[in-house]
């Protein structure tokens, strides 16, 4: 059993996603578990090189997590070009703010690195497709984070769809969101750039990338969309206590038509207070049964167990509607989805294991967000054309 080190340049690791999900819960967790066993019996061992703008923060991170020098070089740098020039770095990963992503990916592709990135791949479809083509031309492996596919709740939902539980699926209703504090009397729990369109913010660009692969991958391909966006809170207060104008959408109300006439509605909001069991929930109704899936849980009601409520507002409700639903058991150990996808990508790089979520998949997410913004602006329903790989 040989150990094969694989150098990973990680850009944006001082940020929320870069640190918590990608460095801590993925790459460092993979090292803690002893690496990744390949089909050939070797062990893949990721060696992160942290990249960012703040030397102090990078040094702290490296020290806190015991990352050591390799080949006489520090495991961090503020110079992306220098990290990419290190011959032992094979993969570039990007979790920077969205507008910084495309240029950094171009640099990584020019240096011949395989690239894995947070979503959205780019700020618009043209750029996303340009990156996909560049990556193909460079002959490297490429991938985009699609973490929601690995959520236990959605894995269970997928199991139900694939097992034919629903009969004919009629509709999907998704509720995503929570209240993001304005930053005045309580600190906001998301970075302020999310609320400025000029900095790559907005809930449509953020969340529609996810909804595209969730709908396509778990239910059925999306064919058209209608969207009403809103900036409900026009002014917020940033990390430094300074008020700023919120120029980006903080809520989006979408209606989507899927293959087979399935109607999906998804509300995405940073301006709603949670009266749900989880921060995202999808209800799928079919002729044979229904399901409600969240991040972790999934509950079902079969046709044979469907109660017969009678509408009578003159009397207080006595039915316990939730009691008529049944919990789907785990039947498996669910790992952190970010980590699972990292393991798949690294095995894709090292031994060509399958990895379906390439830059074209990422571009489909960006396409959906772009169409969503246009549908809202133009106040009309838009088709979602198929994206074909340039090589096909
Ligand atoms: N997959 C998911 O569920 C998910 C969730 C949230 C965010 N994201 C994506 O991850 C990326 C990062 O989001 P985040 O919430 O971690 O953001 P964040 O603000 O917490 O982190 C941003 C990172 O980018 C770096 N950066 C580089 N150039 C910058 C600049 N000019 N201004 C500010 N920061 C700069 C920062 O130093 C920091 O490391 C975004 O593209 C976002 O869409 C994905």
TrEMBL record:
The lineage of its organism: Bacteria, Bacillati, Actinomycetota, Actinomycetes, Streptosporangiales. Residues 67-143 form the Gfo/Idh/MocA-like oxidoreductase N-terminal domain. This is Gfo/Idh/MocA family oxidoreductase. GO terms for molecular function: nucleotide binding. InterPro entries: Gfo/Idh/MocA-like_OxRdtase_N (IPR000683), GFO_IDH_MocA-like_dom (IPR055170), NAD(P)-bd_dom_sf (IPR036291). It comes from the Bacteria. Transmembrane segments: none annotated. Residues 155-291 form the GFO/IDH/MocA-like oxidoreductase domain.
């Amino acid at each position: 059993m040989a150990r094969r080190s694989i150098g990973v340049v990680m850009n944006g690791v001082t940020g929320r996603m870069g640190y918590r999900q990608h460095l801590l819960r993925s790459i460092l967790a993979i090292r803690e578990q002893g690496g990744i066993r390949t089909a050939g019996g070797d062990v893949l061992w990721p060696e992160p090189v942290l990249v960012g703008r703040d030397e102090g923060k990078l040094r702290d991170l490296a020290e806190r997590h015991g990352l050591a020098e390799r080949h006489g070089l520090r495991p961090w740098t503020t110079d992306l070009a220098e990290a990419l020039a290190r011959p032992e770095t094979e993969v570039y990963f990007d979790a920077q703010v969205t507008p910084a992503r495309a240029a950094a990916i171009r640099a990584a592709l020019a240096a011949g690195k395989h690239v894995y990135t947070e979503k959205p791949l780019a700020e618009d479809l043209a750029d996303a497709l340009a990156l996909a083509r560049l990556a193909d031309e460079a002959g490297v492996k490429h991938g985009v984070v699609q973490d929601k596919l690995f959520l236990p709740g959605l894995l269970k939902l997928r199991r139900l769809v694939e097992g034919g539980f629903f009969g004919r699926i009629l509709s999907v209703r998704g509720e995503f969101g929570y209240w993001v504090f304005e930053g005045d009397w309580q600190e906001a729990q998301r970075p302020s750039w999310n609320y400025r369109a000029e900095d790559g913010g907005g809930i449509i660009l953020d969340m529609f990338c996810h909804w595209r692969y969730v709908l396509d991958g778990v239910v059925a391909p999306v064919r058209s969309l209608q969207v009403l966006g809103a900036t409900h809170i026009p002014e917020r207060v940033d990390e430094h206590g300074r008020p700023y104008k919120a120029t980006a959408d903080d809520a989006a109300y979408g209606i989507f038509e899927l293959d087979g006439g399935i109607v999906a509605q998804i509300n995405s909001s940073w301006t709603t207070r949670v009266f749900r069991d989880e921060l995202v929930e999808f209800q799928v109704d079919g002729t044979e049964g229904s399901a409600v899936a969240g991040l972790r849980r999934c509950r079902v009601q079969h046709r044979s167990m469907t109660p017969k409520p009678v509408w009578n507002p003159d009397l207080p409700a006595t039915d316990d509607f939730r009691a008529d639903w049944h919990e789907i058991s785990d039947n498996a150990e669910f790992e952190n989805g970010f980590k699972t996808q990292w393991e798949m990508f690294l095995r894709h790089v090292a031994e060509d294991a399958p990895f379906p979520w390439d830059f074209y998949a990422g571009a489909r997410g960006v396409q959906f967000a772009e169409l969503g913004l246009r549908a809202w602006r133009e106040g009309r329903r838009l088709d979602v054309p198929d994206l074909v790989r340039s090589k096909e």
